[in-house]
Design brief:
- The protein is mostly helical.
- About 40% of the residues lie in helices and about 10% in strands.
- The radius of gyration is 16 Å and the shape is flat.
Length: about 110
C-alpha cells in the first residue's frame, strides 16, 4: 500500500488542531496523483473517499477526531471538516525510530 499510517497520524497531530476540510487533509496525507481519475470528479475526489472510509471514519468512531457541526449529508465529501479531539494527543504518540542518524554532506 502507498500510504503511511505514521505520516497520516502526524498530519492529524500537527495540522488538525482547528477545522480542516477532508480535501485539504487528503492532499497533505496522501500522494493524490496515484489515485485513478474515474468519473467526472478526478483523483482528489477518489483519494478523499479512500481517506474518509479507511482513516477518518474509524478515528471518528474512536473519538479521536470530531465532525464539524456544519457538516451535512448533502455536503461534498471533500468540503466536510474535521479536527482532532482533546484526547487525540493523549492516545496517539508519534516518535521517530532511535536508529536514525544524521549524515552531513559537504
Amino acid at each position: 500500500m502507498f500510504w503511511d499510517l505514521r505520516h497520516m497520524l502526524g498530519v492529524v497531530s500537527n495540522r488538525m488542531g482547528d477545522w480542516v476540510t477532508l480535501g485539504t487533509f487528503t492532499e497533505l496525507a496522501l500522494p493524490v496523483e496515484l489515485f485513478p481519475g474515474r468519473g467526472p470528479f478526478g483523483p482528489r475526489h477518489e483519494a478523499s473517499f479512500f481517506i474518509a472510509y479507511n482513516f477518518i471514519r474509524p478515528l471518528t468512531w474512536l473519538g479521536l477526531l470530531q465532525n464539524s457541526p456544519q457538516n451535512t449529508p448533502s455536503m461534498a465529501v471533500t468540503d466536510r471538516q474535521f479536527r482532532k479531539s482533546e484526547i487525540f494527543d493523549k492516545v496517539i504518540k508519534i516518535t521517530l525510530p532511535n536508529d536514525i542518524r544524521v549524515i552531513g554532506v559537504h
